[in-house]
Amino acid sequence: MTTETTIALAQLEIEAGDVEGNVDRALAAVSRAAARGADLVCLPELFNVGYFAFDLYDRYAESLDGETFTRLSEAAADHDVAVLAGSLVEDLAETRAETPADEGFANTAALFDSSGERQLVYRKHHLFGYDSVENELLVPGERLETAEIGGFTVGVTTCYDLRFPELYRELADRGVDLVLVPSAWPYPRIEHWETLSRARAIENQCYVATINGSATFEDATLLGRSTVYDPWGVALASSGDGPALVTADLDPATVETVREEFPALRDRRQ
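Now predict its structure.
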């Protein structure tokens, strides 16, 4: 019996403000990925409204039980496939669960298992401010959850979080061997995208899957290049710049083997 999990990265074409069209494309990608035998389908950061559509965040914010997350939960159950529902702008005042603030908005990802049950919620911890107003509009997350999916202990971080290695080390300390990274990484920093993603896989000896969008906004172009890295930092599958659906087979035993043969995590001095 195989222990492999087939992961699919859905690099969607994202149209700023076209929430209905963007969500429809996401649902279609889940269906296509399931038909190709995927066990886990991952969507990009803020795939419904578009990361750089800052003036639309409040208009399209939803609770954790809002329409978009609900539709993706149903799609997961309908297609018998786990789904990382990228991230959405969450209206914290409307969510009936523990949140980092009583009001405001967060950049929130949700992971659903193949029965459609929500297993993990991650609110982006590090909010970008360089050529973005995300850090002015949103509330940072505080919790770091994990989930068991397809033989892996899974964690989630989002885009800018890649620049903060201590976050990934905390996930590794919690037993995470697969990190999913929904993103909206812009083209000018392509070297950072590739280097940081690979480094997070190598230093924590785990799989890292980066899922980017494909879009051009008024102030930025997303570079695409969604990629799955293995625990040695080898790219197992990668997309180009445009819309794509790429898959890779992941084996939990690979993580165990790498950590045993090259025990860098055990050799760490604290």
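The radius of gyration is 17 Å.
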